[in-house]
Amino acid sequence: MLRLAVVGTLAVTCSAWAQTPMQVTASATVACKTTDDWNLAAGMIRGDDTQALGQMLVSGRCVMLEQGAQVTMLEQSLWNGLYRVRPKGMTSTYWLPINHAK
Prior knowledge:
Blueprint: H1 2-10, E1 13-14, E2 20-23, E3 28-32, H2 35-46, H3 50-59, E4 62-66, E5 70-77, E6 82-87, E7 94-97
Antiparallel strand pairs: 1-5, 2-5, 3-4, 5-6, 6-7
Helix pairs in contact: 2-3
């Protein structure tokens, strides 16, 4: 039981930086509506499966953010190294790698 409690604590996200303005620093980055979708898209990128990644982009599960795009960081996942951001001018939020924005 104690072991389960520790795992649950590690999966918690941190929102101490809520509403922090940032910019995308990568030349282009994929951001997805859920962390599961982001992990799936990352596997497609590593596997060079552009057709499948294109389907995720067309379906709206993921978007492409260009370098310099303004985003508001709402949450940081302590478990998997992702930020939940809301791109300026959009109402939806997306997850992207921490090292792709600052």
